[in-house]
Amino acid sequence: MWRRYLLWFAHEHIDFRHAEMQSIISMLDIPVKYIEEPSMKKPYWIVELPTEDHLKKIANRSVLLKSCIELWSHAKTESELHENLKQAVKNTSGKWLTTQDLGVVGSNSQICPSEQIEACCDLKKSFKVDVETFCKHFTMKEKVHKIENFSYLPLKGPVKLKNPDIILSYFEFYGVDPNNVPDKPYDVFFGRWVTDGQRDLIQHHSLKRRHFIGNTSMDAQLSLIMANQAQITSGHIVLDPFVGSGSLLVAAGHFGAHVWGSDIDFMMLHGRTRPTRVGQKVRASEESIRGNMKQYSIDSRYLDVVISDFSLPMWREGLKFDAIVTDPPYGVREPAEKIGIEKENYTLSEEHQINHIPSKVEYGLPHIYSDLLNFAARHLEMGRRLVCWYPLVREEYKEDELPCHPCLRLVGNSEQVLSKLTARRLLTYEKVHDNVPNIPVDPNSAAHNFREKYFSIGEISRKERKERKAAEIVANAAFIALAHNKKNNLHDK
Amino acid sequence: MKLITHNMLTSKCLKGVITGYPLAITATVVKVSEVEYNPEFISRIIPKLDWEVLWKAADSIGHNEGLPPTIDPKFEDNEEFLRKAHKVLLEVEVEEGYLTCPESGRQFPITKGIPNMLLTEAEVQ
Ligand SMILES: C[S@@+](CC[C@H](N)C(=O)[O-])C[C@H]1O[C@@H](n2cnc3c(N)ncnc32)[C@H](O)[C@@H]1O
User: CB 3.0–4.6 Å: which of A153, A338, B24, B42 could bond A363 by disulfide?
Assistant: First the structure.
């Protein structure tokens, strides 16, 4: 039977809320009736769903969803809420009615069917009432007072504060502006708690306790949102072509995908870069993407990581991924480079070939995104998704200048503000056509190029790049020598 | 490097190389570790594979594990077949060795299980 629910969201990453929910709802193919048009100004949605099971499936995925309540009453004032609940106890029609339907003159509230309440009135069912207020703080005593106002409800079971059979929730919403809190709430809600979203998972996956992290590891919450945007589910094959420390693969693996990653950075994939954590001197031996998957017991879904330059083709023609999730280099905290050299007719003598660290040239953002979208158009299964970040200067943002490809439809576009001037957008593309040729790089697509326009990386970065390369060569040589010694030792034994 | 990965890799990044597939494997260290068996995934991945390449690769490193050279037409229902495929695809790993481009002979090292497909700047010019 269709039931009405209050979905309460975390007041965080608000621009991602709609995109995450939409991705989950369409992935699970769940019909949703919106009782109130969702609005960015409110941290809640009111919806109707066919069954409670559908609600649980949604909550089982969403990291932005906090809790889900079977709605009994929604009103503008406390007294109206109580009035409605008293009417609801008598509403035996089996459906939501308005007070007008019930012949109450001069009011127009929604009254829930009595069986929702009756289902909680069993003698043996213990219960408690929780009070939550948004944007205003109340003392315990004030909260208890609010709870006592519900004493007319025909609840017959015992009150139990720890692990009761039923949790009833009373919410007061005082708006979202902490500098402008009204005396009385704008909206009040009452209902039966059904389930929570995946907020706990954010803690569980926290980078603070992650074995292997790098300078640009993606935080747990955003990684999980990306996996939801990509509609990743059990049995999928997922690729991150700029894998770094593999945070996005951890999230994809959590939702059941088998994962591949690639990155140009030899030292990173071998867990040999300088430790990222303050106070840590050397990397531990298990520091690797595989080690991270092991930490969450999902290493059975680790496929491989490969050292490779994304600007060059590597995967077999015809290989199709179920999702591509990635955070390409912006060239700010990490170099965005591809193998190359500016000298002409450069050759490398034979004896230098082995373990040579190639020199790199800048991999411009327009080229990265052009390569990425062309790759996705070619290597995604139909109907599947590419989810990637795109950095930009805020005031120059124009939606029609975002990277585009005739095979890919933009289905999600959420902004995360990074500073007063800059932001990055999480773009979600769905593959809608097959068999379209490669689209060449559009030299004008650099309209809001982050790197050139905002971050001047002229001379300093060239020097930094040289130093970094020198350090890499030394470390790499030592590492290879070590590996060889080990091998030789093994052979000797 | 697992054989499922080998099945998907090419050396077509090299100039003048057309398909760069399949890469030959030379393994100095091979490791077999236990991976949780997931028949649903194996059934899904089999149609994406070049089976002949998989079989030859497994055989070339001495780990064909009794895998038949052709796919069983009703493989989804053949547990024994799926288990063997699981082992060859996910449990056998080349720890040390190299991959060789079939057209140019260029070698790509595999160290600590990770293939290095990077070219030198001279090769991408
Ligand atoms: C923003 S970081 C990704 C971080 C990753 N999401 C994580 O959680 O650690 C971008 C990565 O792209 C890699 N990269 C830069 N240029 C590349 C190229 N041409 N091909 C492949 N990877 C490249 C960098 O080494 C870096 O690890």
Answer: A338
Which strand (E) or helix (H) includes residue A59? Answer: helix A52-59
CA-based nearest distance B40→chain A, Å: 7
Choices 2.20.25.10, 2.60.40.2970, 3.30.160.20, 3.30.420.10: CATH for B3-123: 2.20.25.10
ipTM over the 0.90 cut-off: yes
Class of domain A3-198: alpha beta
**Distance to chain A for B87, nearest Cα, Å:** 12
Q: Which residues of A touch B117 (CB under 8 A)?
A: 306-309, 314
Q: Which atom of ligand 1 is nearest to the CA of A333?
A: 1
Window A:474-493, CB contacts with B under 8 Å: 480, 483, 487, 490
**Atom 26, ligand 1: which residue's CA is nearest?**
A244
Q: Give the rounded percent of residues in chain A with a pLDDT score beyond 70.
A: 85
Question: Of chain A residues 119-138, which have a CB less than 8 A from chain B?
Answer: none
For ligand 1, residues with CB inside 6 Å are: A 214, 216-218, 242, 244-245, 247-248, 263-265, 268, 309-311, 327, 329, 334, 336-338, 363
Nearest-CB residue to B124 (from A312, A347, A483):
A312
How is domain A204-453 classified at the CATH fold level?
Rossmann fold (3.40.50)
Give the pLDDT mean for A184-201. 97
Contact B121 A269 (CB under 8 A): no
Q: How far apart are the CA of A244 and the centre of ligand 1, in A?
A: 5
pLDDT of A490 over the 50 cut = no
pLDDT at A312: 95
Read off the pLDDT of residues A218-249 as tens digits, 9 standing for 90 and up: 999 999 999 999 999 999 999 999 999 999 99
Question: What is the C-alpha to C-alpha distance for residues A95 and A86, in angstroms, rounded to an integer?
Answer: 16
